[in-house]
Design the sequence.
């Protein structure tokens, strides 16, 4: 496609409107795959299963791009193209179907004759990488929203999602748990970076956001139990919420009474621990009675200040990714990791956060970390995708 004529994200002032994509195919599983893949790429999406729905979608959603399948239903696709032409559809059309299909080539020719903007045909079968390559000129630009989003707006509009990244047992190489990470799916900006909406713990709505995260993690845990078995989940909350009036009672009321529930892990930032060790220590003590383990996230160069702390009630210690990334070839990083592991020996479980390569994973396993987390094992995924893959997740290192 001529890049000069490519559809680009529209901007209104500083606000970016990401491309809207409509997926048209009669098969539900194909629409589900495409919608999920497009969402992860940052697009806003809609879908239709019949040619009769296209007019309504075009008028209501005004998509920039239509992915058109209807494999084996040539006349259904013909009707879609005719409706698009009748509505003077100004976006692009991407046909997908079996390679060397006479019907597919005929549809591409018909679309061009009707004056539609046709993209090169995408041959099946294809995966997420091939789909992304076909839509390279449409991928939303990584621009930060202005003004920053606040917790109240995101909660009120149901934009918040929780995605899960696996935590791998370094010995068994099986999923030992998952960290729930907040994502916001904005209707105009698409997937928004957490740095653009991370709420201030002084925000009066932060308590409601914290309760939402606990509720969502519990709801997802129940789904995981039914789909792939119980799993240990962790979420990030501020120490200020955990030590606020009524927080422990709230947590107790929200957690499930299911006999297979292993408890919830709440991660606090390492800087909060260093700022007030006694407060964090006391919170960790009391949370245990509510079936909650406190994890220290992102422990970095300040770790020597924790030496000599005899009382260590924390369930888990996660070493900052700055020490893990590249540690296979960096003696200083490995030495720092060794010091942290020695300090925590016999006290708490250790997690290497940010293991992005096989070499770094082998290094942290040799050092003695209990668990590892990073893109080498899987990027954060939405609940459905995580549930589908968790049962099959096993990694080889040889």
Sequence:
């Amino acid at each position: 496609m001529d890049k000069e004529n490519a559809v680009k994200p529209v901007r209104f002032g500083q606000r970016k409107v990401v491309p809207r994509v409509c997926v048209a195919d009669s098969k539900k599983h194909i629409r589900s795959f495409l919608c999920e893949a497009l969402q992860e790429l940052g697009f806003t999406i809609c879908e239709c299963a019949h040619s009769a729905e296209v007019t309504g979608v075009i008028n209501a959603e005004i998509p920039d791009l239509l992915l058109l399948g209807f494999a084996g239903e040539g006349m259904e696709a013909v009707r879609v193209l005719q409706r698009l032409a009748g509505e003077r559809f100004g976006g692009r059309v991407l046909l997908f179907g079996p390679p060397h299909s006479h019907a597919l080539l005929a549809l591409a020719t018909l679309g061009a004759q009707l004056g539609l903007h046709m993209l090169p045909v995408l041959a099946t079968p294809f995966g997420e990488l091939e789909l992304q390559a076909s839509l390279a000129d449409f991928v939303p630009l990584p621009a930060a929203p202005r003004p920053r989003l606040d917790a109240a707006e995101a909660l009120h509009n149901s934009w918040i999602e929780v995605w899960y990244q696996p935590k791998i047992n370094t010995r068994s190489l099986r999923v030992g748990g998952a960290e729930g990470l907040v994502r916001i799916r904005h209707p105009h900006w698409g997937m928004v970076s957490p740095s653009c909406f991370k709420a201030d713990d002084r925000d009066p709505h932060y308590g409601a956001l914290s309760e939402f995260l606990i509720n969502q993690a519990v709801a997802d845990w129940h789904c995981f139990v039914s789909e792939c078995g119980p799993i240990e989940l962790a979420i990030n909350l501020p120490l200020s919420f955990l030590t606020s009036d009524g927080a422990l009672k709230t947590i107790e009321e929200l957690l499930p009474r299911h006999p297979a529930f292993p408890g919830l892990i709440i991660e606090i930032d390492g800087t909060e621990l260093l700022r007030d060790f006694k407060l964090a220590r006391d919170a960790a003590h009391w949370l245990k009675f509510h079936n909650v383990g406190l994890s220290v996230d992102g422990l970095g160069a300040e770790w020597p200040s924790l030496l000599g702390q005899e009382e260590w009630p924390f369930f888990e210690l996660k070493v900052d990714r700055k020490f893990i990334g590249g540690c296979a070839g960096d003696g200083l990083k490995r030495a720092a990791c060794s010091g942290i592991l020695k300090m925590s020996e016999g006290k708490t479980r250790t997690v290497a956060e940010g293991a992005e390569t096989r070499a770094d994973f082998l290094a942290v396993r040799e050092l003695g970390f209990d668990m590892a987390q990073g893109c080498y094992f899987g990027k954060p995924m939405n609940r459905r995708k995580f549930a589908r893959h968790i049962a099959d997740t096993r990694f080889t290192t040889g």
